[in-house]
């Protein structure tokens, strides 16, 4: 039996309303996915590499002796640097990702997942290979085989080799990442000053700027002191600097603590600055997904009903 034409119009209006809500929900999910912390699992792995070695470090500094073999000592020593430089790498990735998806959302949306996988793999390979010189420049003490970590003696390369290694390490591991994060912050700030930005775009830009500035702040607090003190401490331990040794050693110890603090700060940062992470913890993401599925189903069902009605006229 044919439905009255008014009923068909009511169904059409309902269809449009459901469709609009569903599309807005889908758009919101896509937009937030573009800004979500895709590097969060990678940061967690980097932090885990540091946390796993902490019990052994605590045991060593409490007892003053290492009883777990030279290989495990070097591995724990190596993991500390892997954690630090992996954290730096993925902080840069988060800043760049925020910037790119804010400024060029359509250009990079299609390759997001594939690019994330490749960037993560390349990052881990570069970090793991790049950190190899740290344990390779250390050697097991012949007289005291129970020494580890900071007490391991350093091989003494000549001055030109030392300067070359320090320069490459500082440029690749600190200066370049810092410049990239500052550039992303600067460009995002400039975009906020554009006069023709929609209110929604302005809100997204403010969120992106907050995340990028947070990455910059963590970078400066946790990693800048270490990269200032490390070359000085290296030259002190290789006896290429004779003055101010005590002050440099104390400064380097404090800088090491700040660098390790990054593993504790990361979860707090992501909780307070990332909507996606908060939603996952509160299970709001699951509720939104169920609601979106209901809306999409209602939209499809309304279309089917309307299609059947129009064929009966």
UniProtKB/TrEMBL annotation:
GO molecular function terms noted in the UniProt entry: G protein-coupled receptor activity
Any one Gene Ontology cellular component term annotated for this protein: plasma membrane
InterPro entries according to UniProt: GPCR_Rhodpsn (IPR000276), GPCR_Rhodpsn_7TM (IPR017452)
Domain of life: Eukaryota
A GO BP annotation: phospholipase C-activating G protein-coupled receptor signaling pathway
Keyword field: G-protein coupled receptor, Glycoprotein, Membrane, Receptor, Transducer, Transmembrane, Transmembrane helix
Residues spanning the membrane: 115-136, 163-186, 207-228, 248-273
G-protein coupled receptors family 1 profile domain: residues covered: 44-270
Subcellular localization, as worded in the UniProt entry: Membrane
Topology term for the membrane: Multi-pass membrane protein
PANTHER family attached to this UniProt entry: G-PROTEIN COUPLED RECEPTOR, G-PROTEIN COUPLED RECEPTOR 174-RELATED
The protein's name in its UniProt record: G-protein coupled receptors family 1 profile domain-containing protein
Organism: Hirundo rustica rustica
